[in-house]
Design brief:
The complex is a heterotrimer of chains A (164), B (95) and C (118).
Chain A lengths: L1 H18 L7 H20 L13 H27 L8 E6 L5 H13 L3 E7 L2 E6 L11 H12 L5
Antiparallel strand pairs in A: 1-3, 2-3
Chain B lengths: L1 H21 L3 H25 L5 H25 L15
Helix pairs in contact in B: 1-2, 2-3
Chain C lengths: L1 H36 L3 H26 L3 H31 L18
Helix pairs in contact in C: 1-2, 2-3
Classes of the chains: A mainly alpha (164), B mainly alpha (95), C mainly alpha (118).
């Protein structure tokens, strides 16, 4: 039920923001929006995707805090790749490494692998169980322990410290 | 200055087109088209601001949706040679 | 006091927005140059992700500073959120598809000794 309400609130906010009809003075457009929102929630319920992954808004504050940290990391990592792109002789050292993650749930694992991909210079190639195959532009940026903090933070953001 | 940004984006799109046309493998081409799409999304927004009509952003939202779906669809087709394959997880997942 | 500050901000905002937009566009060109220069598919993926993250974020923030009303800012937030969430997914799908198809990545130091290839 909480997932249902979360999806409903997000859809209503999305429709209001995209249509710009905050005052609801035009009944035709407002009824179209209502019908489309109801149709979407009913379809989501019928497809059985109204679970923690389909509507992950319960942990939004933690996820937003994690994103703020992640964006800073992304900009730091961008600088390395930009320098590599502009150097006159191509000085790169690509490597494939296996990273072990402590994330238990699917959502935490997805967030962790997506964070690795989102950071320029590292791309997660394959996820097998709790090991992620990572391709890195420089071998030393993906050495042992390079992803420990990201792993810990994504686990805490998605699962919390206690049982999820 | 917005015009300069638009020109830089057009240059980036033209250079990326070179990679899309000359990419040695299929994946280079798909990567180039996907990255091209991101730049076109930005260019649509910039054109909207350049002409004073920010409604162009609706088109760029639509383009972002289509770009993502088309990338996934192309990759799925060249992996399974068919669209009639379920994309649900094959092995055993986590929790 | 507050009004003068808001006045300064309103005078300063379009210049800052255009500058950020220009920086984002230049970063897109740099990422494209990287895509053209790098020797191998997996390394090109890294160069393309510069466009997907930093360039896109800076350009969207620049456009948000230029935006005339809140509806435009909301649309920009939707565009940013969507690109931010789907960019890594398509990158991972590409890398995974190439890896499954058996495309071998280039491993080891490239282009250190023979200065100025490409």
């Amino acid at each position: 039920m909480g997932y249902f309400l979360g999806l409903l609130v997000v859809l209503v906010a999305l429709w209001l923001g995209l249509s710009g009809e905050y005052t609801l003075t035009k009944p035709a457009i407002a009824s179209l929006g209502t019908v489309s929102i109801i149709l979407t929630t009913v379809l989501a319920y019928r497809f059985d995707i109204l679970d923690r992954e389909g509507s992950p808004y319960g942990r939004l504050p933690q996820l937003v805090a994690y994103w703020a940290w992640l964006i800073v990391e992304i900009f730091k990592a961008n600088w390395t790749v930009i320098k590599a792109c502009l150097r006159s002789n191509l000085d790169i050292n690509p490597a494939l490494v296996k990273v072990k993650t402590g994330c238990e749930s699917d959502l935490a694992r997805t967030v962790f692998a997506n964070s690795i991909t989102l950071t320029p210079g590292t791309v997660s190639v394959e996820v097998e169980g709790d090991k992620i195959l990572v391709h890195a532009l420089y071998e030393d940026t993906a050495g042992p322990g390079a992803f420990d903090e990201m792993d810990r933070r994504s686990r805490e953001a998605c699962d919390g410290k206690g049982p999820a | 200055m917005i015009g300069a940004a638009a020109i830089a984006l057009v240059v980036a799109i033209a250079l990326m087109l070179v990679r899309a046309l000359s990419g040695p493998t299929l994946y280079d081409r798909v990567l180039a088209v996907n990255s091209l799409g991101t730049k076109i999304i930005l260019l649509l927004g910039v054109i909207g601001f350049l002409t004073g009509r920010p409604d162009f952003l609706d088109i760029s939202i639509l383009y972002a949706l289509i770009n993502f779906v088309s990338t996934i669809a192309i990759l799925k087709f060249f992996r399974y040679r068919s669209f009639q394959v379920s994309l649900t997880r094959r092995g055993k997942g986590g929790s | 006091m507050i009004e003068t500050l808001i006045g300064y901000w309103d005078a300063f905002r379009p210049a800052l927005g255009s500058a950020l937009l220009l920086v984002g566009a230049v970063l897109a060109v740099i990422g494209t140059v990287g895509v053209l220069r790098f020797p191998d598919f997996y390394t090109r993926l890294h160069a393309a992700s510069v466009t997907d993250t930093a360039s896109m974020t800076l350009a969207v923030v620049g456009m948000a500073l230029l935006a005339p009303n809140f509806a435009t800012v909301f649309k920009l937030i939707v565009v940013w959120l969507f690109l931010f969430l789907t960019g890594p997914t398509s990158s991972h799908a590409l890398a995974n598809a190439a890896h499954t198809a058996g495309l071998q990545p280039l491993i080891g130091r490239v282009g250190k000794e023979d200065g100025g290839d490409a």
